[in-house]
């Protein structure tokens, strides 16, 4: 492939080019080339920053990585490079597998998620030492050995390889794709003249622009997320820089694979032929960054290495970058060893000074991770999902829903206290918060923006949600004394998130199948009443032998045993199946259940109310419309319900937004929902997680935001936001109570579903512990009933007496819970 010859046409005036770029119109080749003569850096930078802000908001990304210099040998002789060394100066020709693994392990221990392999171009084509070393290692070529070492690092450490092996053929790219999340090669320049005698690339066959462009094109055809970029200041003109950008733009237009363009400034190094060459000044670097953003448009990240312009980081942000590239807490920049990496805390603080927030990403950017079937090899998808959050950025922190260890005090979002610096994205966030606080319905984009809040904006959303909570329901924190009775775990459905169900039609996972008879259900309800409960919550799998008649029989048995007990029972899935099994209209079956003693319904089985997601996680379950129909019909009959969301698996924030909008609109029509209960996905034993098809549950940041955004998006229609201690633990609930939640949920006494999925919580949280946690926040405990009335004093007295001797209700021989 040769660099494109761009037609000469009359360019537009610079002001018109920049105005069009701000409106989302990329400049034509002629217009782009005309920017070479524009010296108004302020106009270029402000235009570039506006394009960046429209595409990336306030996020500036980086990858926490470890650098693995597999070999310093290279067949090229670039006249500015100190990375490549001749065999007599390089020491061992290649790192050994043990050395590679040791570097990777150090990176993993430091929290890195990417392993960047740097190496010279095919040194075995030039050096006998390389060929002999490869032969001793059992490999024919450097790329063969690279493939083996990338696979070793991936399998042994979980770090995701990013490979910079130089020029590659289509076949080589296809092989390396199986062991790397992304790859890259710097174009550096499209000026062929720089490869002529006397130029910086003379004697470097792999640096010819046509050769490098062919590699980039082949990577696009192979659907590899790819990095490229410019090296400025090696003798090229500004017009030649733009020609290189246009060549890269053409390739991305054809393949959509370029995830970032690096604008790297030349650094003169001792002991090179270009040691005395002038380096580009800061203004020239900023000019190139801004023009790169304008030429490439909004879809591709523009990156500047933060260690090469340490005194100009704020100005680089102002010129339109959105990415700092790879920063290592472990290894040096082997290409520029004289330039140390900034400490990540310092980089975050400097980024925050510009009103931006530093966000960790993976080796592949979110837009490529959002379509893993296209861009990620099947062998790498499970680990990529495990390392990702819901937006496709890197999962941060080691908290997972259901784990026993409490979240750390600062586990979810750093705070720099610089929130008053207004940016376009922050202004939009403030408008959304104001509308939500006023009780207005937010749009899908606004809710998604709230879920994207990070850094100081995260705290702003939490504080706004808590202010709405305080004004709407005060400082009381409710809880209900209840017993969960999961009457059977035999189920005909195959929901990919569920580790609870057992049987011929389900995934056989933890525990053994059980099916409580009516006498056992009634006895458990009686025991709950004796311990002061006001409610039993009854749900189970869809047993193949059960019809709606069995659900009616359960109600009759409980009411006969404990007439005063409120029965909160049967998910919309059970209701739908029960009505269908009896051939009854939904309304008629719900009417029979109400007459038999059903007091309210749990709004479970909602998962994500979007059929795009349901088709993946529960394709044979009720649809979104069917779930809404069951809940809406129950409300029309005077039955109140809760509402839930189960998040943190395969869905994205836009699906959360659609879910909340559907709940709000249902509530506006029926007013029957008592509370919203976010339920983070517990992954440990779930089929789709074990098969590598889901994320590792919500992050702590996402879990806290779900309660905060739920409060805001549903205000004032759904008054109560409940935090699930079964999923979050007591300390996690406390975080959510400071972010808009006002309810601790139920004591449960025994719970099966979350613990079957691997959660450590679920076995009888005593009211005393709940009240201690509530009072620790300066809030007031409020024992309540299912429908949010105050719990009767007689029941509260029974609770106090019963929980002094909890062994009284623990009976030997009960089915596993």
- Calculate the terminal CA-CA distance, rounded to whole Å: 65 Å
The low-confidence runs, each spanning 5 or more residues with pLDDT under 50, are 501-510, 751-762, 806-817
Structural class: alpha/beta
Oligomer: single chain
Question: What would you say this structure looks like, in words?
Answer:
Helices cover 42% and strands 13% of the residues. The protein contains 32 helices and 19 strands. The strands form three sheets. Strands 1, 2, 3, 4, 5, 6, 7, 8 and 9 form a nine-stranded parallel sheet that branches. A seven-stranded parallel sheet has the order 11-12-13-14-15-16-17. A three-stranded parallel sheet has the order 18-10-19. Helix 17 crosses helix 18 (444-451). The protein starts with 13 loop residues before the first helix and ends in a 15-residue tail after the last helix.
Task: Outline the secondary-structure elements.
Layout: H1 14-22, H2 29-34, H3 41-56, E1 59-71, H4 87-90, H5 97-109, E2 114-119, H6 128-137, H7 142-157, E3 160-164, H8 170-177, E4 182-184, H9 209-221, E5 226-232, H10 238-255, E6 258-265, H11 282-296, E7 301-303, H12 313-318, E8 323-327, H13 344-353, E9 357-361, H14 366-369, H15 372-375, H16 381-386, H17 424-437, H18 444-451, H19 456-473, E10 476-480, E11 482-486, H20 518-530, E12 535-539, H21 548-561, E13 566-569, H22 572-582, H23 586-595, E14 598-601, H24 611-617, H25 624-636, E15 640-647, H26 653-670, E16 673-680, H27 687-690, H28 700-714, E17 720-721, H29 725-737, E18 743-746, H30 753-756, H31 767-776, E19 780-783, H32 793-802
Parallel strand pairs: 1-2, 1-8, 1-9, 2-3, 3-4, 4-5, 5-6, 6-7, 10-18, 10-19, 11-12, 12-13, 13-14, 14-15, 15-16, 16-17
Helix pairs in contact: 1-3, 3-11, 5-7, 9-10, 10-11, 17-18, 17-19, 18-26, 19-28, 20-21, 22-23, 22-25, 25-26, 28-29
């Amino acid at each position: 492939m040769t660099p494109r010859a761009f037609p000469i046409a009359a360019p537009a005036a610079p002001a018109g080019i920049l105005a069009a770029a701000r409106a989302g119109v990329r400049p034509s080749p002629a217009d782009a080339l005309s920017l070479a003569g524009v010296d108004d850096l302020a106009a270029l930078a402000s235009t570039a920053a506006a394009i960046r802000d429209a595409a990336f908001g306030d996020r500036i990304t980086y990858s926490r990585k470890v650098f693995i210099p597999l070999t310093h040998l290279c067949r090229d002789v670039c006249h500015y490079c100190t990375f490549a060394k001749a065999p007599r100066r390089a020491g061992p020709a290649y790192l050994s597998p043990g050395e590679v693994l040791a570097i990777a392990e150090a990176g993993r221990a430091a929290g890195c998620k990417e392993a960047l392999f740097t190496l010279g171009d095919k040194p075995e084509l030039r050096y006998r030492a390389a060929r002999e070393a490869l032969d001793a290692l059992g490999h024919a070529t450097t790329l063969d050995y690279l493939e083996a070492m990338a696979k070793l690092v991936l399998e042994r450490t979980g770090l995701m390889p990013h490979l910079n092996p130089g020029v590659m053929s289509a076949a080589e790219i296809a092989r390396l794709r199986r062991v790397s999340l992304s790859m890259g090669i710097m174009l550096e320049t499209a000026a062929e003249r720089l490869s002529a005698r006397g130029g910086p690339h003379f004697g470097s066959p792999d640096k010819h622009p046509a050769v490098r462009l062919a590699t980039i094109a082949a990577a696009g055809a192979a659907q590899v997320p790819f990095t490229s970029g410019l090296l400025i200041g090696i003798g090229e003109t500004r017009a030649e820089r733009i020609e290189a950008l246009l060549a890269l733009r053409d390739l991305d237009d054809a393949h959509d694979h370029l995830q970032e363009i690096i604008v790297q400034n030349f650094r003169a190094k001792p002991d090179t032929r270009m040691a005395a060459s002038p380096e580009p000044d800061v203004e020239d670097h900023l000019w190139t960054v801004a023009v790169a953003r304008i030429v490439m448009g909004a879809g591709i990240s523009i990156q500047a290495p933060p260690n090469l312009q340490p005194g100009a980081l704020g100005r680089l942000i102002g010129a339109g970058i959105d990415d700092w590239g790879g920063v290592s807490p472990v290894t040096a920049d082997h290409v520029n060893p004289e330039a140390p990496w900034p400490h990540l805390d310092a980089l975050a603080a400097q980024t925050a000074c510009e009103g931006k927030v530093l966000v960790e990403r993976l080796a592949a950017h979110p837009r490529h991770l959002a379509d893993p079937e296209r861009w990620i090899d099947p062998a790498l998808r499970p680990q990529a999902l495990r390392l990702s959050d819901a937006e496709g950025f890197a999962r941060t922190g080691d908290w997972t829903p259901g784990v026993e260890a409490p979240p750390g005090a600062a586990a979810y979002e750093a705070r720099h206290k610089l929130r008053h610096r207004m940016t376009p994205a922050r202004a939009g966030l403030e408008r959304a918060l104001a509308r939500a606080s006023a009780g207005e319905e937010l749009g899908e984009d606004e809710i998604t923006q709230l879920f994207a809040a990070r850094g100081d904006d995260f705290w702003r959303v939490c504080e706004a949600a808590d202010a709405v909570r305080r004004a709407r329901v005060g400082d009381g924190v409710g809880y209900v004394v209840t017993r969960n009775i999961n009457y059977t775990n035999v189920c005909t459905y195959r929901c990919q998130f569920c580790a609870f169900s057992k049987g011929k039609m389900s995934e056989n996972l933890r525990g053994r199948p059980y099916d409580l008879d009516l006498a056992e259900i009634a006895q458990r309800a009686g025991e709950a009443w004796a311990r002061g409960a006001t409610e039993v919550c009854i749900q189970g799998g869809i047993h193949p032998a059960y019809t709606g008649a069995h659900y009616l029989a359960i109600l009759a048995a409980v009411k006969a045993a404990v007439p005063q007990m409120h029965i909160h029972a049967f998910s919309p899935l059970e209701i739908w199946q029960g009505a269908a099994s009896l051939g009854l209209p939904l309304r008629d079956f719900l009417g029979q259940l109400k007459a038999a003693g059903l007091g309210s319904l749990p709004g479970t089985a909602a998962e994500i109310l979007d059929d795009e997601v349901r088709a993946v996680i529960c394709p044979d379950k009720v649809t979104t419309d069917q779930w809404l129909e069951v809940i809406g019909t129950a409300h029309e009959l005077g039955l109140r319900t809760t509402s839930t969301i189960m998040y943190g698996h395969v869905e994205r924030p836009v699906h959360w937004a659609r879910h909340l909008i559907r709940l709000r609109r249902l509530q506006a029509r029926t007013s029957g929902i008592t509370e919203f209960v976010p339920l983070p996905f517990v992954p440990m034993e779930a089929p789709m997680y074990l098969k590598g098809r889901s994320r590792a549950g919500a992050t702590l940041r996402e879990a806290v935001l779900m309660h905060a955004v739920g409060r805001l998006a549903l205000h004032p229609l759904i008054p109560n936001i409940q935090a699930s201690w079964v999923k979050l633990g007591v300390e996690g609930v406390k975080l959510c109570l400071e972010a808009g939640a006002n309810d601790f949920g139920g004591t449960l006494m025994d719970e099966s579903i979350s613990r079957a999925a691997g959660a450590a919580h679920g076995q009888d949280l005593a009211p005393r512990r709940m009240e201690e946690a509530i009072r620790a926040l300066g809030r007031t405990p409020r024992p309540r009933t299912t429908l949010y009335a105050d719990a009767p004093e007689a029941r509260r007295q029974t609770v106090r007496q019963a929980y002094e001797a909890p062994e009284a209700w623990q009976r030997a021989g009960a089915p596993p819970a």
